[in-house]
Amino acid sequence: MSAADRTAPQLPHLPPEVIAIDSHCHLHDRAYDEDRAQVLQRAEAAGVRVLIEIGASDGVEGNQRALRLTEQHPGVFATVGIHPHDAKEATPAVLSSLEALASHPRVVAIGETGLDYHYNHSPREQQQDLLRYFVHLARRAALPLTVHLREADDDALMILRSEQAQEVGGVIHCFTGDWATARQLLDLGFFLSFSGVVTFKNAEALREVARKVPRDRFLLETDSPYLAPVPRRGRRNEPAFVLYTAACVAEVRKESLEEVVQQATENTTRCFPRIRLPETKPALKAPDAPRGNGIAKSD
Questions:
Q1: Beta bridge partners of residue 220, listed in sequence order
Q2: CATH number for the domain including 175?
Q3: Residue 121 belongs to what domain range?
Q4: pLDDT by residue (tens digit) across 153-191?
Q5: In what order do the strands lie in the sheet with 76-80?
Q6: How many domains, the chain?
Q7: DSSP state of 287
Q8: What dihedral do alpha carbons 279, 283, 288, 294 form, nearest 10°?
């Protein structure tokens, strides 16, 4: 265990009857190849007993790796899709393969899809076309959407409205916009998910959104291995750390940690109806915290 890990504040404690959900993580990422089993054990011991594993990375291969995780761990569910960064790789063969994967019984959503105009790794027009395609796929598969938005709010809102995405619903993951944007997305029926970004010093406007959002419309996530919350900022993130984010949201909303976690769990099961919660049981002893591993960028 590194010196930084020894001095970091302990994870907030949940009573064993409270189940937390990390609504967005990437545990099939290579960053976990050395200690994936221990990461899952730490999540379980912390009370984070349901994880939504995002398949949209590394093309179709990432989706397949995500589904393998769901088959090995009963508390892990998956989404399938193509990240907007990779929209240029969305060939007809790839899309056909994804449509078949969407029928897997452990798949709970389509995504992450969306628009990312910060990096523009794929042409904007291709990102927009792919978002439209995935809205239609979600409708056919009777699944909600997991949506990634970065510096593209106006175009995303236009597409979601024109494609009647409110009919399928879903979540705007790692929401970082202002209240005006939040209200428009809420009006479309989407949930907003808060990541470790809400704990950052310069995120006061986002904390204001967390304070104002209706109690039945927010989720919690890590986006692991990215965006570790304070006090782990700048290190590799992991699902157990969603409790730091929950504690921040609880403080902002002037609610208890248990209230916020229970509400977020209820909201997540409504957003993703295919999720099944495990039975409650006594908390486990957590393995030692991980050594430093500097992964701080967003996906």
A1: 194
A2: 3.20.20.140
A3: 18-271
A4: 999 999 999 999 999 999 999 999 999 999 999 999 999
A5: 20-25, 48-54, 76-80, 107-116, 145-150, 170-172, 191-194, 218-220
A6: 1
A7: P
A8: 50
